[in-house]
Here is the input.
Amino acid sequence: MKLFGKEIEIEFSKYKKISYAVSGGVIALTFLSILMHGGLKYGIDFAGGTLVQLKFHGAAPIAQIRDVVKAVSGGGDIQEFGEPEDVIINIQTEDDGHDETIKNLKAALKAKFGDGSFTVERVEMVGPKVGKDLSTKALLSLIYALIGILIYVSYRFEFRFAVAAVVALAHDIIITVGAFSILDKDFTLPVVAALLTVIGYSLNDTIVVFDRIRENLRLKRSLEINKLVNVSINQTLGRTLITSGTTFFVVAAIFIFGGSVIHDFSYALLVGIIVGTYSSIFVASRVLVAWPGTTTQTLSLAVKR
Here is the structure.
């Protein structure tokens, strides 16, 4: 596909060491961030507890709210939610202590700020057992998705293609999760949904490149494997950039104007689109070429079978 009226001829294989360094560095930073934070910052969906969203008549006094929450429950997570007058309070509670905690918190806030100074917009309660069960199922959903993709791509192409695709997808998931850990953002069920969306989106880009590689294995058998992969990526690059670009702008609009409720979901998609586009060009194809014994001839024989 032509982009800007001319053929693209980029030597992507020249940048393999740079791509290894970039991917390795960001993944290392992800694990370092998770280690320094003592794990991911799980939202109420996974950690369990009580979430209370308040709307104050004026800017929310975060420091004073934190003092009240500490006096009532020993501590909690307090943060602004969208507008300065909106605040969310996360408190760890036992399965049978939600109602009492909310009652005491409301009473303490009214005593501190006065009756009518705020309204309760939302209350959510998740027990620790339920949260643990949800986190286990969320992890399994990601694992099952990768296993299913491994089987599907093995059937449609060949096993080494499947491994390359799954490595690229795992790369995307790790970096997207890292984007939440580095900024210390809540990891919730909507974020897991976004990760599954990213997996599908990134896989689609990778399959387009793999399809072109398979087609060129029949048309350009004389090319060395690195050159053949370069040609294939260049031929699909226009389509990749146009698709990723239009999707990115739509998700960016949702991220900016969609409000706080879907902020984390759209943030995960934004990161995933960027990383997924990168991995379909620099990760999946590199893993395929690096597979032991991979040449144009051996790959042609494997695809024929």
Remarks:
- DSSP finds eleven helices and four strands in the chain.
- The chain has two domains: 12-41+131-304, 49-125.
